[in-house]
Amino acid sequence: MNAIVDFLGGDIVVTAIVKTVVAFAALLLTTLIVVWAERKVIADMQARIGPNRWGPYGILQTLADGIKLFFKEDFRPRTADKWTFALAPVLAMVPSLLAFAIVPIGDHITIGDRRIDLIVADLNIGILYFLAMGSIGVYGVVLAGWASGSKYPLLGGIRASAQMISYEIALGLSLVPVVLAAGSLSTVDIVAAQAGSVSNVSFFNGVPVLEQIAELFSFVPNWYIWSQWPAFFIFLIAGIAETNRAPFDLPEAETELIAGFHTEYSGIRFALFFLGEYVHVVIISAMAVTLFFGGWGGPKPDFLPWIWPIGWFVFKTGLFVYLFVWLRATMPRLRYDRLMWLGWKRLIPASLVWIMVTAVVNTEGVSRNARLVVFGILFVIVLFWLGKGDPRLTGAVTPQRRRVHGPS
Amino acid sequence: MPEGGTYFGQYVTIGIFALVGVVLVLGTLQLAKLVAPNVPDTDKYTTYESGIDPIGSGWAQSNVRYYIFALLFVVFDVEAVFLFPWAIVFERFGTQAFVEMVIFIGILAIALLYAAKKKVLEWQ
After folding, report:
1. Range of A178's domain?
2. What is the mean pLDDT of residues A198-211?
């Protein structure tokens, strides 16, 4: 028995079970609130009231919907492939949940003499684990479309597979420069690398005026959003495309494909697809915060020191979830050829270029940040050059009629 | 040693986490099976085609371009797999690692350029 305990590095099973239960409870609760919040925010943006019947401000609406879906008949079309049809919703939901294991939601807490890190498991290949879970999630969508034995789901499933694998490459490649800068695949290490304030403050030491100017910015946290902003934008666009949400919701474009890959699903299986999508939104938001916005980092007053990091993490993640909802309310859906054009001809080359730029910057001494500024400018030029010459974009937008000024 | 145990300890944690996740989802499905009604009806088991009876089978011909994108995906996904270990050891090898990766990415960039020139990345 002692040999096993030593091998695992301590008595971890109890901790693991407690962490697992807490993590699932927190994640599912968050998802319920996010679904409600989305309906409420979108309702507000469209000058409606939104859910307002169950609980204060309708906050229990998602729970009511969930219970309703439990009591709905869950039937399978005659043409469907029995086992694949049953497997698909599980494959869509489970990997989304599992990806949460490597998200650090706070610093460590101490109970008795036991130190507990607020992360389920600090894998040394955390980023790869996150990408792998995303890849398995694609199977859920593809198999759902294939197994239904119906035309709309089939078309939706094929569309989804092409879209998700295209943007999965951009998503993976956009994380390489971050790994390169942090020198680790562990999310805990990446958050630790973003602690403190911007490190190039010392770079200007000795230069008369710039030194004082740099001092003024010393409060700015050293997040990767400053040095890795192109990677962040590629990550964000690819992340939205991975979740199949507007403006990348082509796999379930209502006007063309009814509901896309989950047209034939009803009852609890539909609920799993639906929840899986929202869990995925929360995970992508949490990863954006972890990788580019310092994770749980933030000001930490003396009062209850362990609760502040969690608060900062929830706050930042909430902002990203709001961004997802905001995009859905405002952006029109992309056309399929534009989608492929953006993924293959813009995001993938751009992320490859940015990987090489980050590599050059990291090669030798001098200041990492100074070189990043230089190459950031270079990257803007490349982006400008890439974005300039697309003939399909010129004339694609109907010019707005100029508004006549003055009293009408 | 970090809390949560050694290398294997972390994976045991992940294993427990995964097990609970699978049990949670399967349990939900099983619970729904117990409480949901089951009223079989022939029309209920037809597929949905905008309200009319389905015509032909559920299979439709799809564009070959999807297949080409799948092939390209394999190339670039494997590339991404090689990039991660490279990114980790980069600081240790410096210029040597950089030059090697320029060659590696260069070859794949040529492949992407070739695909673009062949117009397989266009969606017409």
Report:
1. 72-108+115-350
2. 59
